[in-house]
Design a protein that fits this description.
200 residues; alpha/beta; 6 helices; catalytic activity; TIGR04100 family radical SAM protein
């Protein structure tokens, strides 16, 4: 199982393949992995101790950042993410980031799961994907329906206020006009927006 992989000077943690969304641009339908990662399909979710054992083999301070991002939504395993992140913080000064859909409240049927990330996650990148709930449904296709868009916005506001280093992302599979409206929404919320190229 490839629990860890590197892209450039960042170390990535592939902690689950589970995801509540079926994004129209998701590379999981077409590729086993990316950029020399090897296959990112897991036999099963790795335990915290398995992740920690792999991290022990790395010189964490040699990386620009450690990122929770693999072939699934990391916050499906929010408690394990927090435990691993705390371990990383206990032995290094490396920046810890998470890439997420931002809908962990719905995943865990709990209010304000973002609070769990404070103090152990330094930065959060959130998949905005579209400027309105209806458009988000078409692109992201979450199992929770339109409620997911509003949960993601709420999560983003909390992260901005309590973690600070937050960014939205969209993939350039939507129209230029939709991207412009995403920028307007992001500006309104005071959150920077990154437009990503679809992985090929």
């Amino acid at each position: 199982m490839n629990i860890l992989y590197t892209i450039g000077d960042s170390l990535y943690i592939n902690i689950t393949n589970k995801c509540p969304c079926s994004c129209s641009f998701c590379i999981r339908k077409e590729m086993d992995g990316l950029k020399g990662s090897g296959s990112l399909w897991l036999d099963r979710d790795p335990s915290v101790s398995e992740v920690v054992d792999e991290l022990k083999k790395q010189e964490l301070n040699s990386y620009k950042e450690v990122v929770f991002c693999g072939y699934g939504e990391p916050l499906v395993r929010i408690h394990e993410v927090v435990e691993v992140a705390r371990y990383i913080k206990s032995i290094s000064n490396v920046k810890v980031r998470i890439n997420t859909t931002g809908i962990s409240d719905l995943i865990h049927k709990e209010n304000n799961t973002a609070r769990l990330l404070v103090g152990c996650i330094d930065a959060v990148s959130i998949s905005l994907n579209a400027p309105t709930a209806d458009e988000y449904l078409k692109v992201t296709r979450p199992k929770f329906g339109a409620e997911a868009f509003y949960a993601m916005i709420k999560f983003s506001k909390y992260v901005k206020e309590n973690i600070g280093d937050v960014a939205f992302s969209v993939v350039n599979v939507i129209s230029d006009e939709q991207i412009e409206r995403c920028k307007s929404l992001a500006d309104e919320m005071g959150i920077p927006l990154r437009v990503r190229e679809k992985e090929e």
